[in-house]
Every structure is written in C-alpha cells, then in structure tokens.
Write a structure and sequence with these properties.
Blueprint (H helix, E strand, L loop, with lengths): L1 E6 L4 E5 L6 H12 L6 E5 L2 E2 L15 E7 L5 E8 L3 E8 L4 H12 L6 E5 L2 E2 L16 E6 L3 E6 L2 E6 L6 H11 L7 E5 L2 E2 L16 E6 H9 L14 E2 L5 E5 L8 E5 L3 E2 L3 E7 L6 E7 L4 H11 L9 E4 L2 E2 L16 E5 L4
Parallel strand pairs: 1-5, 6-10, 11-15, 20-24
Antiparallel strand pairs: 1-2, 3-4, 3-5, 6-7, 8-9, 8-10, 11-12, 13-14, 13-15, 16-17, 17-18, 18-19, 20-21, 22-23, 22-24
Length: 353
C-alpha cells in the first residue's frame, strides 16, 4: 500500500509500506530520501504524534493516508506536565534531546520521589530511561503520566506493626532516619534486627536481602537497659563472654549482643553498676553517620568518640566538631560536664581531611 508524507513546505514523499510496518521503519525510509536523522523527525497523524515502536495499523493508517512531517529542534526547551497519579500535576522544563533518566532526576529533586519508583508513560507507552524526549515525540504542553509503585517494609515494635516506605539502596542508617520521621513517638535510641541479625548502620537493605513486605524487629535500647538494671547479668541472653579487665578501675567489660560492639555495660566487682547508664545518638546532618551508644555520666566523651571512629574510620579527624542542643562539646570533658542527657542527639560536623 502507498502512504504520503507531507512536509510544511508543501513537498510530498510517497512510500510503499505494509500495515505492519512500524513507525521507526517509516523514519528510516525518510532518512534515506531526505538525509534527516530519525531523532529529528516528528510524524503526525490526526494531531497525534506517532511513536517509533507502533505499527501503521495501530493508528488505523492504511492505503493513501496522509501523514505530516516536522523537523524537531534538539535544543528546544520544552514545558511539559507531569501528572503523578493520585497526587498532583505540575509543570517541568526540559531540553528535547534530554534522556528520560534526566527527567526522572528532575522529578526526584522537585518531588522527592526516588528514581527507582518512577514509572513514566506517554500515549500509553512506558518511557525507557535511555531514550530522549524527542524519541517519543514529546512536545511542550504534553502530559506525562507518572505512576509510583511504592515499596514498604514492616517494622515490628512490641505488638505493633508499622509500614515504612523504602528503596533497597537505603543504608540501615537511612532506614533508621526514616523510622524516626514516620513514627512520631520514637524518641529513644533503637537497633534493628532481621533474621536474628543486628543490622549494621553502613550496610544496605539489599545486603541483608530485605525486600518488599519484609518484617524487621525494632529493639528500643532503653528497654534493654531497664531489664539489665533490674536483674543480674549472670548467663543473661544479652551478655556474651567476658572480654577484658581494666587495670585502672578493675572493671569487667561485657558486650551486649543486641546493642552491637559499641554498647558496653561497665560493671564493678562483676555485680553492681558504677554509674547511671543511658542511650544517646551520634549522627551527621546528611545521615552518613548514625550510631547509637550507651554511656554513663562520669565517663569522658573521648570514649564515645573513639567507639564512633571504630565504626567510621574514614571520618576520623581531630578537627571534627560535636554539638548537643547547639552547644559545642569539649571532648576532653565528661558526659555530665558537657550536659549530655538521656536520648540526646549529638551532631557531628565532619571536617574534610
């Protein structure tokens, strides 16, 4: 069958094709005649832009049909609408030659929707990350549909279950920050447990095999401390083997499995706690550092600092600044002297080496 390609200057290109011919093949035929690259071609039928992967039959284009031909400007600035299904519609600017992946990054910056959760559609076709807006004949004032497939994990705290949105590239530290934001009453320090393993802050959810609808156990550190305070530590499930003696104060140091290596309970003469213990959090504003600790009032802040750098050795720097409640901490003084209290969030300002 024959179809006719009409240009804006009045020229007509006659092509022999079949109903099963795809639009991209039509563009290749035009390229052979006019030496115009496929990416610059725009074909219109009844006001609808034709998509490369569709056939002529898909658009009901048959014998002696007229199709209109335009040349696209790769540097054209487009103003397009993003319609987030069930949420909102907004305008965004993009260069016609930019790839869909770049558009997704712009949507992430504007609406805080992770790229992995975005599914973009135009004229009922899903847009591929490696193709340009020109490839899909997208122009100014066109509407792109954004469908978000949310992923959730279950966080169990006691007898309650909470759904937390996530993506698998999250670190455990980022997940903890998400939990702090979503569960309004969660003011105490906590640890996360999955498949009987305590989750380390710098590892990702993917590393632990945590996927959609997985259930993670949340352990509040304060509750663990209360159990220890109210009972003896002999053969307790939270205590493992004896680690070492301190020659200076003859104190036994025990490791609590649930609270990781940094949470060390100091005991005097194997039975009595020497000082009141309470949890604190040390974190950076960008959440690259996020760690929970158990401390006591009379110990030096240097103890916490050294434990922190054991976990994050790449950030060890004597010029780092620690603040609590907007006051700079003197690392040579004790916890009490720095006025650090139960469940305080200590901020570390990282100085580049």
């Amino acid at each position: 069958m024959k179809i006719f390609i009409k240009t804006l200057v009045g020229e007509t290109i006659e092509l022999d094709v079949e109903p099963s011919t795809i639009i991209e093949e039509i563009k290749l035929l035009i390229k052979a005649r006019k030496k115009i690259d496929i990416e610059k071609q725009r074909l219109i039928f009844k006001g609808i832009p034709l998509i490369n992967e569709r056939t002529l039959a898909d658009y009901n284009i048959f014998h002696q049909t007229n199709i209109y031909f335009l040349i696209k400007d790769e540097d054209e600035l487009l103003s397009i609408y993003i319609n987030i299904l069930g949420r909102k519609k907004f305008l965004i600017n993009a260069i016609a030659s930019e790839k869909i992946e770049k558009l997704k990054k712009d949507i992430q910056e504007k609406e805080n929707i992770p790229i992995q959760e975005q599914n973009l559609f135009f004229c009922d076709q899903k847009l591929g990350d490696n193709y340009s807006l020109n490839h899909y004949n997208i122009e100014s004032d066109d509407i792109i549909l954004c469908i978000i497939f949310d992923k959730y994990i279950n966080v169990k705290s006691g007898d309650k279950l909470y759904k937390i949105r996530y993506n698998e590239s999250y670190t455990i530290s980022e997940l903890k920050n998400e939990i702090h934001q979503k569960i309004s009453f969660m003011k105490t320090a906590f640890q996360l447990k999955y498949n009987n393993n305590i989750l380390e802050d710098d590892k990702t959810l993917k590393f632990y095999g945590i996927s959609n609808n997985s259930t993670i156990e949340l352990i509040q550190l304060q509750n663990t401390l209360l159990r220890l305070r109210n009972g003896f530590c002999e053969r307790s499930k939270e205590i493992t083997n004896y680690l070492s003696y301190s020659n200076m104060n003859k104190t036994l140091i025990y490791k609590i499995v649930e609270l990781e290596e940094s949470l060390k309970i100091l005991m005097d003469n194997k039975n009595n706690f020497r000082a009141e213990l309470f949890p604190v959090i040390i974190s950076s504003k960008d959440q690259k550092i996020h760690r929970s600790f158990i401390c006591k009032k009379d110990e030096s802040f240097k103890v916490l600092e050294n434990l922190l750098y054991e976990t994050y050795p790449q950030y060890k720097n004597t010029e780092n600044i620690f603040t609590v409640n907007k006051k700079v901490i003197d690392t040579n003084k004790s916890i009490e002297e720095n006025d650090i209290k139960d469940n305080d969030n200590i901020i570390i300002q990282i100085k580049e080496k």
